[in-house]
Amino acid sequence: MNLPQNHPLRIELNDEVHARPPHSVSAPARISYFALISSPEDAEHERRHVRDLCSRAGVQPPQSATNHFTADFGDFRLRWERHTEFTRYQIIAPDPDEKAFENPAIDLMPKDWLEQLSGTLLVAANMAIFQEKDRYSPEKISQDFFSGRSILASSVSGGAAQAFTDFRIAQDGFTRMMIVNGNMTPRQTGRTAQRLFEIDTYRMMALLTFPVARELRPFLARSNTELAAITNLMDENNAGGDQPLLDRLIQLEAAIESRYADHQYRFSAADAYYDLVKSRIAELREDRLPGFQTFEEFMERRLAPAMSTCRSVSDGIQALSERVDRTTQLLSTRVGMAREQQNQKLLETMARRAKLQLRLQQTVEGLSVAAISYYVVGLVGYGAKALKTLGAPIDANLAMGIALPVVILSAAFCVRNIRKHIAGPDDED
Fold first, then answer.
1. Which domain, by its residues, includes 367?
2. pLDDT-derived band of residue 410, with 50, 70 and 90 as boundaries?
3. What's the pLDDT tens digit per position in 341-391?
4. N- or C-end of the chain: fewer Cβ atoms within 10 A?
């Protein structure tokens, strides 16, 4: 059958859901796990570092562009996975003894290789997986492996195993976890171990936002106070005092948007990681062991309040940004209206000045006509007197009287034409 051409990403997207299956782990076993915060620039260094370990042991190295790798090194198995914000490693070795946490799987790794890992350590855990369910009671586990401290314990996978931890960092720098297997298959055991590691990792990744939220809470309080002060001044001030308030609002809005842009990704990531924590706990299918706190209860009491604080701060920044935006729009509208009123007054003043100028111009034109007429009529009188002296029968005064209306009309006509010529055809007056 000739199918249509594959989408360029069909194979890659289809294989993505199968890319990182959990290990099959046969009890008894011991696992060391650690997660490092790393930047995208560290990716190639991490691949080279893993290839270097493979070269030492004669193991087939990972491909150049891969983000996950699993291989058997004889004494242990290594699992390397690179994620968006962190990289995690698992070292799996068989046969833990009664001192499983004193002889962790990570001791099988070359120390110089571990010292050259890139990134900063966020999570480190050692896990012991035992097979003999009846031999290890929860009370004995708490006493022998967790120094009698309060621990989390629950029956998981529908009663097929029991899981234990205290989520505390021991003196060796590792958190301790333990699985007592009843009748889980190796693949179920691997999935359960991975869920426990992911609960710890995603819990810590979510909590990275908590210090940011605590740091922003005083800023939110100051910003709310500033916004309230500006709003009160808006009620008290007239339009003439709005521009300084608008400047303060713009400065406040810039500060809020700057912090929102800097930290919004962290808040969004916290929500995503918290959802993953709850998802992995649900996948454990845990049941209560009498006298012990379950993983779900622990997270609800210890992690959920921190996440509520993060959400509260994130929502507070968004709400404050919207309030400042609305206030800025309102004040901008008021400032704009005040400016329009000022412009209207200015136009009215200019109109009055134009009318006065027109009247003055008309007055000057009238005076000009009168002056021109006076001088022209005078010239007519002088001419008439001169002719009378030569013997012509002309009365100078009569000649001046007859010439007067003609001169006035002619002068007015000439002045009007000159003004129209200077002003242009659009000026009717």
1. 356-423
2. confident
3. 778 888 888 888 888 877 777 677 677 777 777 778 788 777 877 777 877
4. N
Q: How far apart are CA 357 and CA 396, in angstroms?
A: 40
284, 315, 344 - which closes a domain: 344
Q: What's the burial of 273, exposed, middle or buried (CB within 10 Å: 0-12/13-18/19+)?
A: buried
d(CA 66, CA 62) in angstroms, rounded, equals 7
C-alpha distances (whole Å) from 150 to each of 135, 140, 226, 293, 294 are: 20, 12, 46, 9, 12
Burial (Cβ within 10 Å: 0-12, 13-18, ≥19) of residue 195: buried
Cα distances from 243 to residues 20, 247, 248, 298, 336, in angstroms, run 59, 6, 9, 53, 10
- Asked if residue 50 belongs to a domain, the reply is yes
Q: Are residues 255 and 335 in the same domain?
A: yes
| Same domain for 165 and 222 | no
C-alpha–C-alpha distance, residues 311 and 293, integer Å: 26
Confidence bin at 236 (pLDDT 50/70/90): confident
Confidence (pLDDT) at 149: 84
Strand segments, DSSP code E, in 215-320 are: 287-288
Domain shared by 360 and 338, yes or no: no
Please determine, for residue 51, whether its predicted confidence score (pLDDT) is greater than 70. Answer: yes
Same domain for 291 and 335, yes or no, is: yes
Show the tokens assigned to 213: 């939220």
94/110 Cα distance (integer angstroms): 18
Residue 61: partners with Cβ closer than 8 Å, 6 or more residues away: 50, 51, 54, 55
pLDDT of residue 230: 85
The tens digit of pLDDT for each residue in 99-140 reads: 778 889 999 999 999 999 999 999 999 999 988 765 677 888
In this structure, the answer to whether residues 215 and 323 fall within a common structural domain is yes
Looking at the predicted structure, is the pLDDT value of residue 248 above 80?
yes
Express each pLDDT in 328-354 by its tens digit. Answer: 888 777 777 777 777 888 888 888 888
**Distance (Å, rounded) from C-alpha 111 to C-alpha 98?**
24
Mark which of 288, 319, 344 sits at the end of a domain.
344
Instruction: Please give the tally of structural domains in the chain.
Output: 3
Phi, psi of 136 (to 5 degrees): -115, 95
Same structural domain for residues 300 and 235? yes
